Task: inverse folding
Protein backbone atom coordinates (compact mmCIF):
# COMPACT_ATOMS: atom_id res chain seq x y z
CA UNK A 1 0.00 0.00 0.00
CA UNK A 2 1.53 3.28 -1.10
CA UNK A 3 1.58 6.72 0.37
CA UNK A 4 0.08 9.86 -1.16
CA UNK A 5 2.00 13.08 -0.52
CA UNK A 6 0.66 16.45 -1.61
CA UNK A 7 3.14 19.20 -2.41
CA UNK A 8 1.63 22.60 -1.80
CA UNK A 9 2.56 26.19 -0.99
CA UNK A 10 -0.32 28.60 -1.32
CA UNK A 11 1.77 31.13 -3.17
CA UNK A 12 2.54 30.59 -6.82
CA UNK A 13 6.02 30.39 -8.27
CA UNK A 14 7.85 29.06 -5.22
CA UNK A 15 8.70 25.76 -6.86
CA UNK A 16 5.93 23.24 -6.18
CA UNK A 17 6.15 21.73 -9.63
CA UNK A 18 9.94 21.68 -9.65
CA UNK A 19 9.95 20.07 -6.21
CA UNK A 20 7.41 17.44 -7.30
CA UNK A 21 9.39 16.57 -10.41
CA UNK A 22 12.69 16.37 -8.54
CA UNK A 23 11.44 14.41 -5.54
CA UNK A 24 9.76 12.00 -7.94
CA UNK A 25 13.02 11.58 -9.84
CA UNK A 26 15.02 11.22 -6.63
CA UNK A 27 12.64 8.59 -5.26
CA UNK A 28 12.78 6.74 -8.57
CA UNK A 29 16.61 6.81 -8.33
CA UNK A 30 16.16 5.03 -5.01
CA UNK A 31 14.17 2.38 -6.89
CA UNK A 32 10.76 3.24 -5.55
CA UNK A 33 7.67 3.02 -7.73
CA UNK A 34 6.45 6.59 -8.02
CA UNK A 35 3.47 8.24 -9.67
CA UNK A 36 3.30 12.01 -10.09
CA UNK A 37 -0.11 13.68 -10.42
CA UNK A 38 -0.53 17.16 -11.81
CA UNK A 39 -3.75 18.70 -10.47
CA UNK A 40 -3.22 22.18 -11.89
CA UNK A 41 -6.03 21.97 -14.44
CA UNK A 42 -5.75 24.54 -17.19
CA UNK A 43 -2.19 25.56 -16.29
CA UNK A 44 -0.37 22.29 -16.37
CA UNK A 45 3.42 22.40 -16.15
CA UNK A 46 4.64 19.19 -14.60
CA UNK A 47 4.66 17.44 -17.98
CA UNK A 48 6.86 20.19 -19.43
CA UNK A 49 9.35 20.04 -16.56
CA UNK A 50 9.51 16.27 -16.92
CA UNK A 51 9.87 16.58 -20.69
CA UNK A 52 6.85 14.37 -21.31
CA UNK A 53 4.51 16.88 -22.93
CA UNK A 54 4.60 15.24 -26.33
CA UNK A 55 3.32 11.92 -24.98
CA UNK A 56 0.08 13.15 -23.49
CA UNK A 57 -2.99 11.60 -25.03
CA UNK A 58 -5.38 11.32 -22.12
CA UNK A 59 -5.34 13.33 -18.90
CA UNK A 60 -6.78 13.31 -15.40
CA UNK A 61 -10.07 14.87 -16.50
CA UNK A 62 -10.52 12.11 -19.06
CA UNK A 63 -10.03 9.60 -16.26
CA UNK A 64 -12.52 11.32 -13.95
CA UNK A 65 -15.07 11.66 -16.75
CA UNK A 66 -14.53 7.96 -17.53
CA UNK A 67 -13.45 8.69 -21.09
CA UNK A 68 -10.46 6.40 -20.56
CA UNK A 69 -9.01 3.99 -18.04
CA UNK A 70 -6.49 5.20 -15.49
CA UNK A 71 -3.77 3.01 -16.99
CA UNK A 72 -4.25 4.62 -20.41
CA UNK A 73 -3.63 8.09 -19.05
CA UNK A 74 -0.45 7.24 -17.16
CA UNK A 75 2.75 8.20 -18.97
CA UNK A 76 5.97 6.34 -18.29
CA UNK A 77 9.01 8.53 -17.74
CA UNK A 78 11.68 8.39 -20.44
CA UNK A 79 14.46 7.74 -17.92
CA UNK A 80 12.90 5.47 -15.30
CA UNK A 81 10.56 2.56 -15.72
CA UNK A 82 9.31 3.00 -12.16
CA UNK A 83 8.26 6.64 -12.60
CA UNK A 84 4.89 7.61 -14.05
CA UNK A 85 2.99 10.83 -14.63
CA UNK A 86 -0.75 11.48 -14.64
CA UNK A 87 -0.99 14.79 -16.50
CA UNK A 88 -3.51 17.56 -15.89
CA UNK A 89 -5.90 18.71 -18.59
CA UNK A 90 -4.94 21.87 -20.37
CA UNK A 91 -8.19 22.70 -22.10
CA UNK A 92 -10.75 21.95 -19.40
CA UNK A 93 -12.01 23.97 -16.51
CA UNK A 94 -10.95 23.56 -12.90
CA UNK A 95 -14.49 22.58 -11.94
CA UNK A 96 -14.16 19.31 -13.84
CA UNK A 97 -12.12 17.80 -11.05
CA UNK A 98 -13.94 16.68 -7.94
CA UNK A 99 -12.84 15.30 -4.55
CA UNK A 100 -14.65 11.97 -5.05
CA UNK A 101 -12.92 11.36 -8.37
CA UNK A 102 -9.53 12.22 -6.86
CA UNK A 103 -10.08 9.83 -3.97
CA UNK A 104 -10.94 7.05 -6.39
CA UNK A 105 -7.88 7.65 -8.57
CA UNK A 106 -5.46 7.85 -5.67
CA UNK A 107 -6.91 4.76 -3.97
CA UNK A 108 -6.34 2.88 -7.23
CA UNK A 109 -2.79 4.20 -7.62
CA UNK A 110 -1.89 3.33 -4.03
CA UNK A 111 -2.35 -0.35 -4.85
CA UNK A 112 0.50 -0.22 -7.28
CA UNK A 113 2.88 2.59 -6.36
CA UNK A 114 5.05 3.21 -3.32
CA UNK A 115 4.72 6.97 -3.52
CA UNK A 116 2.14 9.19 -5.14
CA UNK A 117 3.24 12.82 -5.34
CA UNK A 118 0.43 15.30 -5.96
CA UNK A 119 1.41 18.64 -7.45
CA UNK A 120 -1.06 21.16 -6.05
CA UNK A 121 -2.17 24.30 -7.89
CA UNK A 122 -1.47 27.71 -6.33
CA UNK A 123 -4.25 29.21 -4.30
CA UNK A 124 -6.61 27.92 -1.64
CA UNK A 125 -9.74 27.28 -3.68
CA UNK A 126 -11.28 24.11 -5.07
CA UNK A 127 -8.06 23.10 -6.81
CA UNK A 128 -6.24 23.00 -3.50
CA UNK A 129 -9.03 21.02 -1.90
CA UNK A 130 -9.04 18.47 -4.70
CA UNK A 131 -5.29 17.99 -4.37
CA UNK A 132 -5.35 17.61 -0.61
CA UNK A 133 -8.44 15.48 -0.11
CA UNK A 134 -6.85 12.11 -0.74
CA UNK A 135 -3.35 12.81 0.60
CA UNK A 136 -1.85 11.04 3.61
CA UNK A 137 1.01 13.48 4.05
CA UNK A 138 1.75 17.01 2.99
CA UNK A 139 4.90 18.90 2.10
CA UNK A 140 4.75 22.69 2.22
CA UNK A 141 7.22 24.52 0.00
CA UNK A 142 8.23 28.07 0.77
CA UNK A 143 10.96 30.48 -0.29
CA UNK A 144 12.76 32.73 2.20
CA UNK A 145 10.47 35.65 1.46
CA UNK A 146 7.92 37.15 3.78
CA UNK A 147 5.01 36.85 1.40
CA UNK A 148 5.75 33.23 0.69
CA UNK A 149 6.11 32.37 4.39
CA UNK A 150 2.84 34.15 5.11
CA UNK A 151 1.03 32.05 2.51
CA UNK A 152 2.72 28.89 3.77
CA UNK A 153 1.42 29.68 7.23
CA UNK A 154 -2.10 30.05 5.85
CA UNK A 155 -1.80 26.74 4.04
CA UNK A 156 -0.57 24.96 7.16
CA UNK A 157 -3.65 26.28 8.96
CA UNK A 158 -5.89 24.90 6.23
CA UNK A 159 -4.06 21.58 6.22
CA UNK A 160 -4.71 21.19 9.94
CA UNK A 161 -8.41 20.99 9.14
CA UNK A 162 -7.86 18.24 6.59
CA UNK A 163 -7.31 14.61 7.32
CA UNK A 164 -3.52 14.63 6.80
CA UNK A 165 -0.51 14.16 9.04
CA UNK A 166 1.22 17.38 10.22
CA UNK A 167 2.96 18.82 7.15
CA UNK A 168 6.71 18.97 6.55
CA UNK A 169 8.57 21.99 5.26
CA UNK A 170 10.94 22.51 2.36
CA UNK A 171 12.65 25.88 2.13
CA UNK A 172 13.43 26.47 -1.50
CA UNK A 173 15.70 28.89 -3.35
CA UNK A 174 17.90 30.03 -0.54
CA UNK A 175 20.55 32.54 -1.52
CA UNK A 176 23.21 32.26 1.09
CA UNK A 177 24.92 35.59 0.49
CA UNK A 178 21.62 37.41 1.01
CA UNK A 179 20.83 35.48 4.16
CA UNK A 180 24.26 36.44 5.52
CA UNK A 181 23.64 40.10 4.86
CA UNK A 182 20.29 39.81 6.55
CA UNK A 183 18.41 40.58 3.36
CA UNK A 184 16.72 37.22 3.27
CA UNK A 185 14.95 35.24 5.96
CA UNK A 186 17.07 32.62 7.59
CA UNK A 187 15.92 29.00 7.67
CA UNK A 188 15.77 28.86 11.48
CA UNK A 189 13.59 31.93 11.52
CA UNK A 190 11.17 30.40 9.06
CA UNK A 191 10.99 27.12 10.93
CA UNK A 192 10.37 29.03 14.14
CA UNK A 193 7.47 30.99 12.67
CA UNK A 194 5.83 28.04 10.96
CA UNK A 195 6.73 25.56 13.70
CA UNK A 196 6.54 22.44 11.57
CA UNK A 197 9.23 19.91 10.95
CA UNK A 198 11.89 20.86 8.39
CA UNK A 199 12.30 18.25 5.69
CA UNK A 200 15.01 19.96 3.70
CA UNK A 201 16.51 23.06 2.19
CA UNK A 202 17.37 23.74 -1.41
CA UNK A 203 19.79 26.42 -2.54
CA UNK A 204 18.96 28.75 -5.39
CA UNK A 205 20.75 27.15 -8.30
CA UNK A 206 20.81 28.15 -11.95
CA UNK A 207 21.06 24.49 -12.84
CA UNK A 208 17.44 23.97 -11.74
CA UNK A 209 16.11 26.37 -14.34
CA UNK A 210 18.49 25.07 -16.94
CA UNK A 211 17.46 21.49 -16.33
CA UNK A 212 13.73 22.12 -16.33
CA UNK A 213 14.01 24.03 -19.59
CA UNK A 214 15.53 20.90 -21.05
CA UNK A 215 12.73 18.77 -19.63
CA UNK A 216 15.08 16.91 -17.36
CA UNK A 217 14.72 17.30 -13.59
CA UNK A 218 17.92 18.50 -11.90
CA UNK A 219 17.84 15.61 -9.42
CA UNK A 220 18.97 13.40 -12.28
CA UNK A 221 22.34 15.17 -12.44
CA UNK A 222 25.07 13.65 -10.27
CA UNK A 223 26.46 16.54 -8.25
CA UNK A 224 24.91 19.94 -8.51
CA UNK A 225 23.91 21.40 -5.16
CA UNK A 226 20.22 21.30 -5.88
CA UNK A 227 20.27 17.71 -7.04
CA UNK A 228 22.05 16.60 -3.86
CA UNK A 229 19.49 18.50 -1.77
CA UNK A 230 16.59 16.83 -3.54
CA UNK A 231 18.11 13.40 -3.20
CA UNK A 232 18.70 14.04 0.49
CA UNK A 233 15.06 15.02 0.92
CA UNK A 234 13.99 11.83 -0.85
CA UNK A 235 16.10 9.79 1.57
CA UNK A 236 14.51 11.61 4.50
CA UNK A 237 11.08 10.75 3.08
CA UNK A 238 12.16 7.11 3.18
CA UNK A 239 12.99 7.56 6.86
CA UNK A 240 16.78 7.90 6.77
CA UNK A 241 18.31 10.65 8.84
CA UNK A 242 20.49 12.75 6.61
CA UNK A 243 22.16 15.94 7.91
CA UNK A 244 21.24 19.24 6.24
CA UNK A 245 23.65 20.32 3.57
CA UNK A 246 25.90 23.29 4.18
CA UNK A 247 24.85 26.37 2.28
CA UNK A 248 28.35 27.86 2.18
CA UNK A 249 29.29 29.03 -1.25
CA UNK A 250 31.78 26.83 -2.94
CA UNK A 251 33.75 29.77 -4.25
CA UNK A 252 36.91 31.10 -2.61
CA UNK A 253 40.45 29.83 -2.65
CA UNK A 254 39.95 27.38 0.15
CA UNK A 255 37.08 25.52 -1.42
CA UNK A 256 38.89 25.45 -4.73
CA UNK A 257 41.79 23.75 -2.99
CA UNK A 258 39.35 21.31 -1.41
CA UNK A 259 37.85 20.63 -4.80
CA UNK A 260 41.33 20.04 -6.12
CA UNK A 261 41.81 17.31 -3.58
CA UNK A 262 38.47 15.83 -4.50
CA UNK A 263 36.76 16.78 -1.28
CA UNK A 264 33.17 17.86 -1.27
CA UNK A 265 32.06 20.80 0.83
CA UNK B 1 -41.29 -1.46 -62.97
CA UNK B 2 -38.27 -3.50 -61.96
CA UNK B 3 -35.47 -4.46 -64.28
CA UNK B 4 -32.93 -7.05 -63.23
CA UNK B 5 -29.49 -7.26 -64.72
CA UNK B 6 -26.87 -9.82 -63.94
CA UNK B 7 -23.23 -8.79 -63.83
CA UNK B 8 -20.08 -10.54 -62.75
CA UNK B 9 -20.40 -8.95 -59.31
CA UNK B 10 -24.01 -10.06 -58.83
CA UNK B 11 -27.45 -8.67 -59.54
CA UNK B 12 -28.39 -5.07 -60.18
CA UNK B 13 -32.02 -4.08 -59.68
CA UNK B 14 -33.19 -0.98 -61.51
CA UNK B 15 -36.32 0.32 -59.87
CA UNK B 16 -38.50 2.72 -61.85
CA UNK B 17 -38.77 5.99 -59.95
CA UNK B 18 -42.23 7.07 -61.14
CA UNK B 19 -44.40 4.50 -59.35
CA UNK B 20 -45.41 4.31 -55.70
CA UNK B 21 -43.19 2.68 -53.12
CA UNK B 22 -45.77 0.14 -51.92
CA UNK B 23 -46.14 -1.14 -55.49
CA UNK B 24 -42.39 -1.49 -55.72
CA UNK B 25 -42.34 -3.67 -52.64
CA UNK B 26 -45.18 -5.83 -53.90
CA UNK B 27 -43.66 -6.34 -57.31
CA UNK B 28 -40.20 -6.94 -55.92
CA UNK B 29 -41.59 -9.67 -53.72
CA UNK B 30 -43.22 -11.36 -56.72
CA UNK B 31 -40.32 -10.96 -59.12
CA UNK B 32 -37.77 -12.36 -56.72
CA UNK B 33 -39.90 -15.28 -55.59
CA UNK B 34 -40.42 -16.46 -59.18
CA UNK B 35 -36.70 -16.63 -59.74
CA UNK B 36 -35.54 -20.02 -58.68
CA UNK B 37 -32.06 -20.27 -57.15
CA UNK B 38 -30.02 -23.39 -56.74
CA UNK B 39 -29.20 -24.46 -53.17
CA UNK B 40 -25.52 -25.06 -53.93
CA UNK B 41 -24.86 -21.64 -55.38
CA UNK B 42 -22.94 -19.09 -53.32
CA UNK B 43 -24.62 -15.94 -51.96
CA UNK B 44 -25.50 -13.39 -54.62
CA UNK B 45 -24.87 -9.72 -53.95
CA UNK B 46 -27.51 -7.26 -55.00
CA UNK B 47 -27.05 -3.63 -55.95
CA UNK B 48 -30.14 -1.48 -56.10
CA UNK B 49 -30.41 1.55 -58.40
CA UNK B 50 -33.23 3.84 -57.33
CA UNK B 51 -32.90 6.47 -60.05
CA UNK B 52 -34.43 9.75 -58.90
CA UNK B 53 -36.25 8.23 -55.96
CA UNK B 54 -35.44 9.19 -52.36
CA UNK B 55 -35.92 6.61 -49.59
CA UNK B 56 -36.03 7.50 -45.94
CA UNK B 57 -34.70 5.14 -43.28
CA UNK B 58 -37.86 3.05 -42.77
CA UNK B 59 -38.44 2.59 -46.48
CA UNK B 60 -34.87 1.53 -46.99
CA UNK B 61 -35.22 -0.99 -44.18
CA UNK B 62 -38.47 -2.33 -45.69
CA UNK B 63 -36.74 -2.77 -49.03
CA UNK B 64 -33.82 -4.59 -47.47
CA UNK B 65 -36.25 -6.76 -45.53
CA UNK B 66 -38.05 -7.92 -48.66
CA UNK B 67 -34.77 -8.96 -50.25
CA UNK B 68 -33.38 -10.50 -47.10
CA UNK B 69 -36.32 -12.88 -46.96
CA UNK B 70 -35.17 -14.42 -50.23
CA UNK B 71 -32.56 -17.12 -50.08
CA UNK B 72 -29.06 -16.42 -51.27
CA UNK B 73 -29.51 -12.69 -51.73
CA UNK B 74 -27.48 -10.02 -49.93
CA UNK B 75 -27.99 -6.30 -50.43
CA UNK B 76 -24.64 -4.72 -51.06
CA UNK B 77 -25.60 -1.11 -51.69
CA UNK B 78 -28.54 1.11 -52.48
CA UNK B 79 -27.79 3.98 -54.86
CA UNK B 80 -29.89 7.00 -55.53
CA UNK B 81 -29.39 10.13 -57.62
CA UNK B 82 -31.01 12.33 -54.99
CA UNK B 83 -30.15 13.28 -51.42
CA UNK B 84 -31.89 15.47 -48.87
CA UNK B 85 -31.05 19.11 -48.38
CA UNK B 86 -29.67 18.28 -44.96
CA UNK B 87 -27.25 15.75 -46.39
CA UNK B 88 -26.24 18.17 -49.09
CA UNK B 89 -25.46 20.86 -46.55
CA UNK B 90 -23.52 18.32 -44.52
CA UNK B 91 -21.59 17.45 -47.64
CA UNK B 92 -20.75 21.03 -48.26
CA UNK B 93 -19.66 21.45 -44.66
CA UNK B 94 -17.43 18.41 -44.87
CA UNK B 95 -15.74 19.53 -48.03
CA UNK B 96 -15.34 23.25 -47.44
CA UNK B 97 -12.03 24.82 -46.51
CA UNK B 98 -12.55 27.04 -43.51
CA UNK B 99 -10.06 29.84 -43.10
CA UNK B 100 -9.40 31.01 -39.58
CA UNK B 101 -6.98 33.76 -38.58
CA UNK B 102 -5.94 33.27 -35.00
CA UNK B 103 -3.04 32.36 -32.77
CA UNK B 104 -4.07 29.19 -31.00
CA UNK B 105 -2.50 29.56 -27.57
CA UNK B 106 -1.85 27.03 -24.84
CA UNK B 107 -5.10 25.52 -23.61
CA UNK B 108 -7.14 26.67 -26.60
CA UNK B 109 -8.76 24.23 -29.00
CA UNK B 110 -10.00 25.00 -32.50
CA UNK B 111 -12.31 22.29 -33.77
CA UNK B 112 -13.97 22.37 -37.18
CA UNK B 113 -15.76 20.16 -39.68
CA UNK B 114 -14.08 20.02 -43.08
CA UNK B 115 -10.63 21.32 -43.99
CA UNK B 116 -8.91 23.88 -41.81
CA UNK B 117 -6.75 26.67 -43.14
CA UNK B 118 -5.21 28.33 -40.12
CA UNK B 119 -3.52 31.63 -40.80
CA UNK B 120 -1.51 32.01 -37.63
CA UNK B 121 0.40 29.83 -35.20
CA UNK B 122 -0.41 26.93 -32.92
CA UNK B 123 1.60 27.38 -29.73
CA UNK B 124 2.71 24.47 -27.52
CA UNK B 125 -0.30 23.28 -25.51
CA UNK B 126 -2.73 24.50 -28.19
CA UNK B 127 -4.71 22.08 -30.31
CA UNK B 128 -6.40 22.12 -33.71
CA UNK B 129 -8.82 19.43 -34.85
CA UNK B 130 -10.45 19.01 -38.27
CA UNK B 131 -12.44 16.22 -39.87
CA UNK B 132 -10.58 16.93 -43.11
CA UNK B 133 -7.09 18.21 -43.89
CA UNK B 134 -5.18 20.83 -41.93
CA UNK B 135 -3.07 23.56 -43.49
CA UNK B 136 -1.22 25.96 -41.22
CA UNK B 137 0.17 29.19 -42.63
CA UNK B 138 2.40 29.78 -39.66
CA UNK B 139 4.18 27.73 -37.03
CA UNK B 140 2.70 24.48 -35.79
CA UNK B 141 4.12 23.84 -32.33
CA UNK B 142 1.14 22.27 -30.58
CA UNK B 143 -1.08 19.32 -31.39
CA UNK B 144 -2.84 18.91 -34.77
CA UNK B 145 -5.45 16.23 -35.43
CA UNK B 146 -6.59 15.80 -39.04
CA UNK B 147 -9.19 13.34 -40.30
CA UNK B 148 -10.68 13.29 -36.82
CA UNK B 149 -13.62 11.15 -37.96
CA UNK B 150 -11.36 8.44 -39.27
CA UNK B 151 -10.22 9.72 -42.66
CA UNK B 152 -6.74 8.22 -43.03
CA UNK B 153 -6.10 10.13 -46.25
CA UNK B 154 -6.09 13.46 -44.45
CA UNK B 155 -2.86 15.45 -44.35
CA UNK B 156 -1.36 18.12 -42.10
CA UNK B 157 0.78 20.75 -43.78
CA UNK B 158 2.52 23.68 -42.13
CA UNK B 159 4.91 26.47 -43.06
CA UNK B 160 6.92 25.65 -39.96
CA UNK B 161 6.52 22.24 -38.46
CA UNK B 162 7.62 21.58 -34.89
CA UNK B 163 4.54 19.86 -33.44
CA UNK B 164 4.44 18.16 -30.08
CA UNK B 165 2.04 15.64 -31.58
CA UNK B 166 0.54 14.89 -34.98
CA UNK B 167 -2.63 12.85 -35.13
CA UNK B 168 -4.30 11.61 -38.31
CA UNK B 169 -7.47 9.52 -37.91
CA UNK B 170 -6.47 7.13 -35.12
CA UNK B 171 -2.71 7.33 -35.70
CA UNK B 172 -0.54 9.33 -33.33
CA UNK B 173 3.08 10.39 -33.61
CA UNK B 174 5.03 12.55 -31.22
CA UNK B 175 8.11 14.73 -31.42
CA UNK B 176 11.47 13.09 -30.69
CA UNK B 177 12.91 13.17 -27.16
CA UNK B 178 16.10 14.94 -28.13
CA UNK B 179 15.73 18.64 -28.68
CA UNK B 180 15.32 19.30 -32.36
CA UNK B 181 14.68 22.16 -34.68
CA UNK B 182 11.48 22.28 -36.66
CA UNK B 183 11.30 22.00 -40.42
CA UNK B 184 9.94 24.42 -42.97
CA UNK B 185 7.26 23.68 -45.57
CA UNK B 186 6.59 20.09 -44.71
CA UNK B 187 3.57 17.90 -44.30
CA UNK B 188 2.53 14.91 -42.25
CA UNK B 189 0.60 12.02 -43.76
CA UNK B 190 -0.02 8.36 -43.13
CA UNK B 191 2.33 5.99 -44.90
CA UNK B 192 0.05 3.03 -45.56
CA UNK B 193 2.92 0.55 -45.96
CA UNK B 194 4.72 1.49 -42.77
CA UNK B 195 1.35 2.09 -41.13
CA UNK B 196 2.53 5.23 -39.36
CA UNK B 197 2.64 8.98 -39.79
CA UNK B 198 5.59 10.28 -41.76
CA UNK B 199 6.76 13.85 -42.33
CA UNK B 200 7.91 14.80 -45.80
CA UNK B 201 8.39 17.77 -48.11
CA UNK B 202 5.21 19.48 -49.27
CA UNK B 203 6.10 18.63 -52.86
CA UNK B 204 5.41 14.92 -52.36
CA UNK B 205 1.72 15.63 -51.80
CA UNK B 206 1.06 15.95 -55.52
CA UNK B 207 2.11 12.32 -55.95
CA UNK B 208 0.95 10.80 -52.71
CA UNK B 209 -2.37 12.58 -52.36
CA UNK B 210 -3.41 13.57 -55.90
CA UNK B 211 -7.00 13.68 -54.66
CA UNK B 212 -6.26 16.91 -52.83
CA UNK B 213 -6.77 18.72 -56.11
CA UNK B 214 -10.12 20.22 -56.70
CA UNK B 215 -13.48 20.10 -55.11
CA UNK B 216 -15.06 17.39 -57.26
CA UNK B 217 -13.34 14.49 -55.57
CA UNK B 218 -15.19 15.29 -52.40
CA UNK B 219 -18.59 15.23 -54.05
CA UNK B 220 -17.71 11.93 -55.72
CA UNK B 221 -16.25 10.33 -52.62
CA UNK B 222 -18.82 11.74 -50.30
Result:
Amino acid sequence: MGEAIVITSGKGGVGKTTTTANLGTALALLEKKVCLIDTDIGLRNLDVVMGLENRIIYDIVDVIKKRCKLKQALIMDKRFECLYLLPAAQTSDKSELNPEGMKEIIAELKQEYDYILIDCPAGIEQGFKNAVVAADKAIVVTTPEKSSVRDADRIIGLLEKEDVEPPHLIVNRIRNHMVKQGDMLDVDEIVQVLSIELLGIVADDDEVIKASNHGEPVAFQPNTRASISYRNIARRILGESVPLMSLEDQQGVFSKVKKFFGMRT
Amino acid sequence: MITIKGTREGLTLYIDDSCSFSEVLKELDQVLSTKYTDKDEPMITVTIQLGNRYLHKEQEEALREVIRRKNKLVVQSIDSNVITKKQALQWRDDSEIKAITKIVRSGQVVEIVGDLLLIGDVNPGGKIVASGNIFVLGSLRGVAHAGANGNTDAVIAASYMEPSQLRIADYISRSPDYESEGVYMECGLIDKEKSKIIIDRLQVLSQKRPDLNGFERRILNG
